[in-house]
Design goal:
0% strand, 112 residues, 2 domains
Length: 112
């Protein structure tokens, strides 16, 4: 069981991947190259739309970014960081909870 926990060296992983992929393609009766469905997806026209920004989006993004910069951590993995022992992130979590509540309370009054 110990060998599963240790990382494989590059000289083992490289040949395994390099030999497995072509063998799967050969024995799976597939051609090397781009699949036909991917060719159709790549041939689809790309449409770009002009985005409209409001003051609220700009101020909200600046406020969010400022909070992210002050805490020094991405707000997404708060619970994972706390679980890994980074207990200083608890301050961020305790700030995020009232911030989320305030947004929910003011959401109807904010501009679109």
């Amino acid at each position: 069981m110990e060998w599963i926990k240790n990382p494989w060296p590059w000289y083992v992983g490289g040949p395994v991947i390099g030999l497995t992929v072509p063998l799967l393609l050969i024995f799976g009766n597939k051609r090397l190259g781009v699949s036909s469905s991917l060719r159709h997806i790549c041939a689809a026209p790309i449409q770009l739309y002009k985005l409209k920004f409001t003051k609220g989006q700009v101020y909200g993004g600046l406020f969010f970014g400022l909070g992210w910069a002050i805490t020094g951590a991405c707000p997404g993995p708060l619970f994972a960081l706390i679980g890994s022992g980074t207990t200083v992130i608890i301050v961020t979590l305790l700030s995020a909870i009232p911030g989320t509540w305030v947004y929910g309370y003011l959401r109807e009054k904010l501009p679109p």
